[in-house]
Amino acid sequence: MNTQAVPRPASARGRIAPVKFAHIVFRTAQKDAMVDWYRTVFEAEVALANPLLTFLTFDEEHHRIAIAGMPGLKPQDRQTAAMEHCAFTYASLGDLLATYKRLRGKSITPYWCINHGPNLSFYYRDPDGNQVELQIDVFDSTQAIEEWFRTSDFATNPIGVKFDADELIRRFDAGEAPAELTVRPHIPREQVFAQLPND
């Protein structure tokens, strides 16, 4: 997570920047399991499939996720430099929690539930161990995020605060407002590193 203020749009800075993030591609020795997992998590449709490659989409893009089957690949080594995780944002807390419940019903559960402050997140691992973050943005503007960074305890707690997903759902279902449910509580400085995932 970036600890600096959110920059102005690229056009205002006189820069040419991409207009969107298009897709992510995974190579794997267990193509069928990976395709099944991503189809399940994102309720994705197969846009193209052949023995080597499967393209998946869940919106207007022709493919958001591609899975390349490469038999014989070695498993990931967590001690090797690699991409840490990819993140996908949902439109609302209700959508995120409904997705959590749907996936839990299919025995797909997060290994880490964390309120970072600017976003509230569920972290999952796919069959190859790649980390996938499903999140919502807590604030609705760049100015609100900048204000949060200025006034919060982010300098002493850049990790966030773990939460119990089922308790959050209970409160949400009881009618508590999303704005209240997504406020990151303050924790003592000595508890910050205990917020990291256990595995």
Describe this structure in words.
The longest helix is centred in the N-terminal third of the chain and has 12 residues, at 31-42. β6 and β7 (119-125) form a beta hairpin. By secondary structure, the protein is of the alpha+beta class. The strands form two sheets. Strands 5-8-7-6-9 form a five-stranded mixed beta sheet, covered by helices on one side. Strands 1-4-3-2 form a four-stranded mixed beta sheet, covered by helices on one side. It contains five helices and nine strands, in the order βαββββαβββαβαα. The protein is 24% helix and 23% strand. The protein has two domains: 21-71, Roll (2,3-Dihydroxybiphenyl 1,2-Dioxygenase, domain 1), CATH 3.10.180.10; 84-199, 2,3-Dihydroxybiphenyl 1,2-Dioxygenase, domain 1 (Roll).
List the helices and strands and how they pair.
Layout: E1 24-28, H1 31-42, E2 45-49, E3 53-57, E4 65-69, E5 85-89, H2 93-104, E6 112-115, E7 119-125, E8 131-137, H3 142-151, E9 161-162, H4 165-173, H5 178-181
Parallel strand pairs: 1-4, 5-8
Antiparallel strand pairs: 2-3, 3-4, 6-7, 6-9, 7-8
What class would the helix/strand composition place it in? Answer: alpha+beta
Integer-rounded radius of gyration: 18 Å
| CATH domain class name of the largest domain | Alpha Beta
Q: State which percent range the strand residues make up.
A: 15-25%
Shape: globular
The order of strands across the largest sheet is 5-8-7-6-9
How many separate structural domains? 2
Which second-level CATH architecture of the largest domain applies?
Answer: Roll
Question: What's the β-strand tally?
Answer: 9
Biggest pleated-sheet summary:
5 strands, mixed
Supply the number of helical segments: 5
CATH topology of the largest domain: 2,3-Dihydroxybiphenyl 1,2-Dioxygenase, domain 1
Summed over residues and divided by their number, the pLDDT gives a mean of 92
Chain oligomer state: single chain
| Termini Cα gap | 20 Å
Order of helices and strands: EHEEEEHEEEHEHH
